[in-house]
Amino acid sequence: MEFGLTGLATMSWPGLLKLRAENAAKPKSERTAVIMVFLPGGQSHLDTYDPKPDIGSEYRGPFKTIPTRIPGTHFTELMPMQAKIADKFTVLRSMNQTAGGHPAGTMQMLSGDPDTRDKPNPRLPDWMSVAHYLRSKDSKRTSKLPNYASINPINSTYCGPAYLGDAYAPFSVSDDPNRPNFEVPNIGLPDEAETKRLSDRVALRKSLDRMERAFDREGELGALDQFETQAMALLTNPQTRDAFDLEKEDAQTRDRYGRNRWGQQLLLARRLVESGVEIITSQLSGPLCGRTHVWDDHAVDHHIFEALRFRMGNYDRAVSALIEDIYARGLDKRVLVVVTGEFGRTPRITFDRSTGAGDASGPAGTLQPGRDHWPRAFSNIWAGGGIRTGAVIGATDKRGEDVTERPCSAGDFLATIYHHLGIDSAKVTINDFNGRPTPIVDHGRVIPELIA
Question: In terms of pTM, does the model score above 0.90?
Fold first, then answer.
């Protein structure tokens, strides 16, 4: 594992760390955390957690159903590992939102923005940035690690800190954790000589700062010292380096998660949450998804059923291992795991000509099946967090087109995550660009069936 060093001597990086400071007054054992596994493009609910085996062939996929540890509940055969541990999580089958495009759908799910129009950038901050902002107000946290990390970050045009500012964006891990020379910039230094050179550069910049303090009307430069110290700790403290070092895990554990990008991403997420990181996202995308690198299984992009066969083994293994570890390692009260996309896929199967050959797609011109965007009904799963598990919440109609029981909105989704983090989303506001108090969620309630 290799570690890089970029930009510490500039004003910007310690300045960002100032606002990224991690926090909370509670002891670490009491502090809650969330790992969100995001499936960009939208997973098909009919072919995974909400199968409809008795509907017609124009809707039904080719996959058989299998029993799970939840009595009377079946998944498709694509997820045998999750079926065996279904008593350790809860399936929410009645998720719905109102935006059919990827940008607007992601914004609804992650920030609560009700606008159905696709926008080039988010108008509201996502829940991760909000939680990071609110927890950064407390200076008693002792961990040297960033409090918000994104492993394979979600598309920044779909979500982000918006009016909170880029300082509340995640500490991003973009490299593939499965690579032998996996690299995390700005974490750890290779030797003492590099540490001394860095210290000399910081000392030089501090001397220059003193010349500017007389012109610093807001006093911001004087506040940087504390956070520059944290920046140094991020580079020199062994805790920070070790948290990202997957070689600390035994081979059997790494195999259990899967020796691929997705498996090692979720193993890294578990290591980070154990080391004190409290807000973690990990997007499952890239070549393991198929030709287009996302779960967006239009017929022009993927043969949807071949795409699901291609990716679901790795997905099933990685998610199962993460959920099992959350319980086996005593994290199940403190750490909430949520697996979701921005919407589901159309229950009715569509057919179109492929636009190009690749994994899970025939040569250009091949007629193949797909499913399109479907925000009216989809599924996600919840584990840990002290929630009630081994259950199914809500239901869809016989074709999986609409919610028929216990509808849950994007606002409900967000309110439940905030509740686990100890944030009362019904009361908390943050000033926007114009100084107006803006609710962090202006609709939605905690999903009571998830609360033990």
Answer: no
